[in-house]
Amino acid sequence: MNQGPDGPDRPDGPVTDLWTLAERLVPELAERTGGETALTPDERARHARRRSPGARRRFLGGRLLRRLALSARTGLPPGTWRFTEGAHGRPELVSGRHGLRFNVSHTEGLIACVVTEGYASGVDVERVPFDDETVRLLTTQFDEAQRAVLAGAPDPAAALQEMWVLSEAYLKGIGIGLVQGLGELRFTRRAGSGEVTVADGRRPETCRSWRLDLTGHGSGHLVAVAVDDGGAGRLRRHDLAGPGDLVPPDVPPGPWPAAGPPAAAWPPAASAAP
């Protein structure tokens, strides 16, 4: 497993954990953890309603990965976690679960999850490069000023991919998704790093505390992470890319029971290092 910080080292700042799971590993992860039996009844019903095998596999992988990521962060068993839906259907932990926040994204080939302690966050993952039809359709989602920036870029298609994944991560992070569109967002990458700042014409005060990280993935994907940590944090990656990565301590031993009773104490005696 590839694990370590991206960008400048800030050992005393808040840590955002980014977990990625190759879609091809979902069946093995499910076999190790109990698969659908680790889901709640509602999650199992939603899983069954997915029409294609790929959609069901990615749904299951996302649900298992978020339990894994939360447990790796805390040392608590995967059956600890209970989920609810916030505004616009965003999955969240039920209130009072140790201040943790998380977000999940998946596309063909890759599933991603971010976990923070006390900071809102968002993640988006896209398979790249986009085909010509996708580029044409997505271009129409941006405003005139954004399209001008894209047209002036050395590689307009690559710039569109980056702007799209950054926009999705940020809008998921602030909790509204795409319901209000993508207009008036501007992104600036810090020289020599994958760190990005955002200017939001609709929410100029909100955006000031958000930091974004843009990173490639060896499987042909682009990942963006947005965190409301005031720019003081750092990103720690955990890439589950091969079968050898699905062993302790990265994957708690299974099978994982569905949500059980709350933990008796916090912090646990043996918790994961921040």
UniProtKB/TrEMBL annotation:
The region called Disordered is annotated at 31-53, 234-274
- A Pfam family name for this chain? ACPS
Q: Name one GO molecular function term.
A: transferase activity
Biased-composition ranges, Pro residues, are 249-260
Q: SUPFAM superfamilies annotated for this entry?
A: 4'-phosphopantetheinyl transferase (SSF56214)
Q: Which UniProt keywords apply?
A: Transferase
Q: Does the keyword Transmembrane apply?
A: no
Q: Does the keyword Transferase apply?
A: yes
Give the compositionally biased regions (Low complexity): 261-274
- Where's the 4'-phosphopantetheinyl transferase domain? 122-224
Q: Which family does it belong to?
A: Belongs to the P-Pant transferase superfamily. Gsp/Sfp/HetI/AcpT family.
Q: This protein is called what?
A: 4'-phosphopantetheinyl transferase superfamily protein
Taxonomic lineage per UniProt? Bacteria, Bacillati, Actinomycetota, Actinomycetes, Kitasatosporales
